[in-house]
Design a protein that fits this description.
157 residues, alpha+beta, Nucleoside Triphosphate Pyrophosphohydrolase, eight-stranded mixed sheet, 8 strands, Nudix_hydrolase, hydrolase
Length: 157
Amino acid sequence: MFKMTHHACVRGVVIDKGKVLVVEHSHSNRPPFWCFPGGHVEENETLVEAVKRELKEETHLDVDVGQIVFVQEFVKEHLIELFFECFIVDGEARLGSDPDNPGMPILTRMKWVEPEELLELPVYPKALSQILFEDHRNFPKIGFQALYEKEEIQKDK
């Protein structure tokens, strides 16, 4: 039996007309900050399904999900966060909600920012903001595929 060691979060990096979409979070226990829209992967949900659902909830956008562009691990929280390049399919971006966090509005603002603004605002993760600032058209991509069954190892004949 496998033991669960990490929880997964997904985030969408949406770039349209040279601007990057970010949402502001306000929590009672820390100052407001900006990040890329997304959240936790739900039980029985694929990573791609989670990205699409989270973007719809938080921004009202329907997206196609591309490659992974960044990965970060929160060691103490046993959380891995995967950032996917996303392409708008339908909808107009407007602030949604974060149903995972009941109570006061957690998402307080949403905006399209120029890549250089990512460095001026408290946008996290800072490392991804720096990458997007340096070249938002050609940022590195990590190959991704979803397998529903393990690939069989071919035996030499």
